[in-house]
Every structure is written in structure tokens, then in C-alpha cells.
Design brief:
The structure is a homodimer. The first copy, chain A, is mainly alpha-helical. Helices cover 61% and strands 7% of the residues of chain A. Chain A has a two-stranded antiparallel ribbon. In chain A, α2 crosses α6, α3 crosses α5 and α4 packs across α5. The termini of chain A are far apart. The interface between A and B is large, with 61 and 61 residues. The structure holds a DNA duplex.
DNA sequence: TATTGTTATACTCTATAACTATA
DNA sequence: TATAGTTATAGAGTATAACAATA
């Protein structure tokens, strides 16, 4: 199958290709542990934000409350996190459990191995460069100078 | 929401973030034209490979025959491509139609604009560098020297 | 009134399996 | 036997809408 020149020169397409390659390997590695990239991200966000509620978690993951529910249900069912009483009677406080810590420690190593495999064709400097550039992806920040009048 | 240090240092996660940002903008731009990134990729692959069959297309897109069917159905229903008799009685030959050419020309400009917006925080050199690095993502190539005996 | 969690429902994309008609 | 297209069905992930309880 020949490739299309226009297609190859679309940044979004190259990003998609690279993402697909990486996510496929990550999924393969996580699957035996009953995790997906999204679940793992949620787990790590809960660890970094103990006591957060589901709505905030969903916001951070760019999914809505309803979808965040399912995700949290899955993590709770596996005993990785639990819902505790929150700051008022209608919010939950999400907390990681010991079992979650253990799982996390194990899969982090696997993920780093995956990263290393997927960046095997880059030098260390190139890998650092890729990290830095990926963080720069996105629209220009709106400038808000101190003497702005808006 | 605080970020998690381990998470931020996983290449796959940074890739996912960057990809999500780009794909969201691309989808927004393509939607009024009834296209999605996947449909557009298929369209461009058919253009570059006139007469290809659905199975080959699916392979190039990393989806199976059945899923490729739906994709082709969608493109054909919109009059962008058509199925012609293939090299034998059980294969189709996919061809882009004039309407497909027109659509493609229009959205390519929009996509380049999107790319430019999403890489606005990079210099030109950085953008070229990102392209090159994304192409290097993936496992090390298996070496097959001429004097290999396997 | 607005917000949080929840439930029910639906949509999209993908996969698997089975069928058909060719090869 | 194997392959290309097709169809039916199912699963994952997401969204919307509506409801109850609470703020």
C-alpha cells in the first residue's frame, strides 16, 4: 500500500500513528493486570489528589460525570480505590487503597519498559526532545500582560 | 487538580495528551464536512492507491475487513468514492470520485490550519523536529544484514 | 436554583463469527 | 481450502437526559 504525500505531511496524522503504536503496546502490557491506559491515568490522578470527587476526576480526564462513574466503579470493584464520605453529603472522596499502590508500582515498571521499547530508535537526547515538544503541542496561550485593559 | 509526577514522565501519556489536543481540533474542523480523521485517512489512501481493495485498506488502517466495510460504505454513500469491479469477481476496486477530490482539497487547507494552530508554540525548526521524532516512534527494526543466515 | 451522584439509554467504533461467492 | 465481501451481533467507551438528594 503506497502512502499519500499529503497525508504524511499532516502533523495530526503522524501524531495519530505514533500514538497508536504506543497505546497498542501499553494496552498489551496492562491487559493482564486488568487495567487500561485510561484506568491507570485515573488511578494516578486519584493518588496525586487524595479525596477528590468524581466530577473533578472526569474533568481532568476530559470525560463527563457519567463516564467517570463507570471508571470509578471499575477501579473500586477491583479494590484499587474506594469512595469515602466527602466534604458534604453529596460528594464522594476518592482514595487509593494499599492494593492500588501495589498494582501501580508493578505496572509503572512495565510502562517504562514499554516506553523504552517504543523509543528504541531515538537517542536519549531525542527522547528528551520529544517529551519537551509534546508538551508544547496545543494552541498559543492567550497573552494576559499586566497592563492589559480587558 | 494536581498532576502526578510519575504520570507526567510516561512518554505514552504525553503522547496521548498531545494526540487528544490535536484530534479534538481536527474533528471540530472536519465535522461540518461530514468527515472524521479516520474517514479522511481512508480517502487519502484510496487516492494514493486507486483500485485497491477493502481488505488492503483495512490493513493499512489497522482495522479488520468488517470495519473497513462500514468505512467504505460511509465514503461511498457520500459520493466521495465508488466500488468498481476488481481484478476478479470477489474483489472491489476502490476509486476516488471527482466529488472526493473536491472535498479533499478543501479540508486539506483546513487541516493545515489546524496543524499550525496546534503547533503555534513551536518554532519552525521545532515543528520539523517533532515530525522527525514522531516518525521514529516504534520498536527497533529487526536487522537483516545481507550475510544473515536466518 | 445549582450541583453531585446515579441510572437508563443510545451512539460510535471496533471485533468476532458465520454465510456467500468466488478462487 | 482459502479468500473477499458481507451481515449480524456484541463489547468498550463515550454522551445525553432525567432523577434524587443535597447545597
Amino acid at each position: 500500500m503506497k502512502q499519500d504525500d499529503d497525508l504524511e505531511n499532516i502533523l495530526g496524522y503522524q501524531m495519530q500513528r505514533a500514538f497508536q503504536i504506543m497505546t497498542e503496546d501499553a494496552r498489551r502490557v496492562l491487559e493482564p493486570h486488568g487495567l487500561t491506559p485510561a484506568k491507570l491515568t485515573a488511578l494516578m490522578l486519584i493518588r496525586a489528589n487524595p479525596g477528590c470527587d468524581q466530577t473533578a476526576l472526569g474533568l481532568a480526564l476530559s470525560i463527563n460525570r457519567s463516564s467517570a462513574m463507570k471508571l470509578v466503579n471499575g477501579l473500586a470493584a477491583r479494590g484499587l480505590i474506594e469512595r469515602r464520605p466527602g466534604r458534604n453529603l453529596r460528594t464522594n472522596a476518592l482514595h487509593m487503597l494499599a492494593h492500588g499502590e501495589e498494582q501501580l508500582a508493578g505496572v509503572l515498571t512495565l510502562l517504562h519498559d514499554s516506553d523504552r521499547r517504543m523509543s528504541a530508535r531515538m537517542t536519549d537526547a531525542e527522547q528528551r526532545s520529544l517529551f519537551a515538544l509534546l508538551r508544547k503541542v496545543g494552541p498559543a496561550r492567550t497573552r494576559r500582560p499586566k497592563d492589559s485593559t480587558d
